[in-house]
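debug: dumping io for the single-chain case to check the tokenizer round-trip. Nothing else runs in this session.
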Amino acid sequence: MQGDEPFVSRRAVLGATRMVTEARFPLGTAAVVAPAHVLSDPDVVKVVAADDGRAMYFSRAAIPFLRDAADAELQRTHVWQHIGVYAYEWSALMHWIQLPESRLERIERLEQLRPLAAGVAIGVSLIDEPVRPGIDTENDLERANRDWAVFSTG
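debug: decoded output
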């Protein structure tokens, strides 16, 4: 799990793990259907995946792009918010850390584009639950500290 995503759910961890252990991808991660308001938010990473769960691209931009308003409902079900959790085969992790930074990774500032650009498949498990917000700002950290205090005493 990423340090800026301390409240990743058990479902997300298991979903990412299943992409490796059951779907046989070398790397696995998780996503949720995103609420409409995150589409234009560059702090929220979006992912599009093929029918078999293989990640096609991760972006801070609005993907998939809505060309025709008539397809808005179809787009809504395909805007997936990436959850910062990864599972991997050991050899895939060793390969990942030896890869040089990719141009796409540098442009988007998304580390998962490094293996993807090198042809390493990443399986995306679609999780059916609301996502807990990550920590990207000082206000997010304050909220997370309050949430953690409730979580650890509850």
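debug: round-trip ok. The chain has one domain: 10-153.
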